[in-house]
Design brief:
Strand content: over 45%
Strand order of the largest sheet: 6-8-9-10-11-12-13-1-2-3-4-5-7
Order of helices and strands: HEEEEEHEEEEEEEE
Shape: globular
CATH architecture: Beta Barrel
CATH topology: YmcC-like fold
CATH class: Mainly Beta
Number of helices: 2
Number of domains: 1
Number of strands: 13
Helix content: 10-25%
Radius of gyration: 19 Å
């Protein structure tokens, strides 16, 4: 009986380890880990920062759900927006909930309003994927209400996504091997704005850098990983 119990224990451990190995997530894996991404203007002036924390991790067979809390601070370093989102490993594929694309700077005016969020997934390919690999589109719709009255809607669509390259990227938080993704981003609030972006993601870390460009290809701002506390 003891041998059977030991065997079952080992099988359970093997299953958990396999889930972790097969997962290859683009977020930290240790609960309590905090990291910080700082937003800059095209000229390098700080526009705000977001502090992330992995608050929970749920393992179900080979699938893993990562629950992440965020706090946004404006350029005066005043706390102005909180959010939560999830990321997943499903069948060996890693994806974010598109709610992670909610920009704290844009949303801070609506902190005390009711938000209805409809978010698709946002897939990040593993480090072995081929350059040029096309990725699924993503979308995020947010309905903003105050006192039960609809104020306005916001919709973000991310299309033409592909893996551009694999390269090392250095930030104030360190140097990380990354996959580099490019995409077209359309945001519709009062008016429709089309832009493009380029993003660097590192396994076990997340987004290391993001650059935004207008329709003419001019840099309009960037974000960078500035702190990682494991």
């Amino acid at each position: 009986m003891r041998h059977l119990a030991s065997l079952l224990f080992l099988l359970c451990c093997a299953s958990l380890c396999w889930a972790q190995v097969d997962c290859r997530p683009f977020v930290p894996v240790d609960t309590g880990t905090k990291w910080e991404v700082t937003d800059y203007s095209a000229k390098g002036k700080v526009q705000g920062r977001t502090v992330f924390e992995l608050v929970d991790k749920v393992v179900e067979g080979e699938d893993v759900t990562f629950k992440i809390a965020t706090v946004y601070y404006d350029k005066k370093d005043k706390e102005s927006f909180k959010n939560e989102f999830e990321a997943y490993c499903k069948g060996g594929t890693f994806e974010f909930d598109m709610a992670f694309k909610m920009n704290g700077g844009a949303m801070q005016a609506y902190q005390n309003m009711d938000l209805e969020v409809d978010a698709s997934s946002f897939t990040v390919p593993d480090m072995n994927a081929k350059t040029g690999t096309s990725l699924p589109d993503g979308s995020l719709a947010v309905k903003i209400k105050s006192g039960g009255v609809a104020m306005f809607n916001m919709k973000v669509e991310v299309i033409d996504r592909k893996l551009e390259a694999r390269e090392d990227r250095t930030t104030p938080a360190g140097t990380f091997p990354c996959v580099v993704l490019s995409q077209t981003v359309t945001t519709k609030m009062v008016m429709k704005i089309q832009a493009s972006s380029k993003e660097w993601y590192a396994e076990g870390v997340g987004m290391v850098r993001s650059e935004s460009y207008n329709k003419k290809g001019k840099l309009t701002g960037y974000s960078e990983l500035t702190k990682l506390e494991k």
